[in-house]
Automatic annotation (TrEMBL):
GO molecular function annotations of the record: DNA binding; DNA-binding transcription factor activity
InterPro entries with a match to the protein in the record: Cro/C1-type_HTH (IPR001387), Lambda_DNA-bd_dom_sf (IPR010982), TransReg_Diox_bact_type (IPR050807)
SUPFAM superfamilies: lambda repressor-like DNA-binding domains (SSF47413)
Keyword annotations from UniProtKB, A to Z: DNA-binding
SMART domains xref list: HTH_XRE
Entry keyword DNA-binding: yes
One GO location term (cellular component): cytosol
Annotated coiled-coil segments of the chain: none
Claim: Protease is one of the keywords in the record: no
Name the record gives this protein: Helix-turn-helix domain-containing protein
Entries under Pfam families matching the protein: HTH_3
Stretches assigned to the HTH cro/C1-type domain: 8-62
Length: 125
């Protein structure tokens, strides 16, 4: 948490705010703010949100996961399940079997997953 504390201090100092003034603006005590900046205590999620909103920075920036205040864009692309039976069971759970469109929806979703799996095979060889 030392790195986070350094980042919190740098944000405060970037606006030339005293600990007392920032604490007042964030709705916390000056002693709590001091402990956060020195890595002696960890802010609550709500306090982290207040910092992010007040300074208009991302949580990634506050947690020193990136150097850009706006944060980092992640491209998460989960792998399609390789086990066809497992995928079919999952899709069946997603729709109401009593629905008149059940089979059509189920087949459409399974077809999309099959197409995605084919695309991944082409990319990975």
């Amino acid at each position: 948490m030392k790195e986070v504390g350094k980042r919190l201090r740098a944000l405060r100092e970037s606006l030339s705010l005293s600990q007392a003034k920032l604490a007042e603006l964030l709705g916390i005590t000056q002693s709590s703010l001091n402990r956060y900046e020195n890595g002696q205590s960890t802010p609550t999620v709500e306090v982290f949100r207040r910092y992010a909103d007040f300074f208009d920075v991302s949580m990634d920036y506050i947690f020193a996961r990136c150097e850009k205040p706006q944060g980092k864009l992640y491209h998460y692309q989960p792998k399609v399940w390789k086990n066809g039976a497992e995928m079919e069971q999952f899709v069946e759970m997603c729709f109401d079997p009593k629905s008149p469109y059940y089979n059509r929806m189920k087949e459409s979703v399974l077809q999309m997953f099959a197409e995605k799996a084919d695309e991944e095979k082409e990319v990975t060889g």
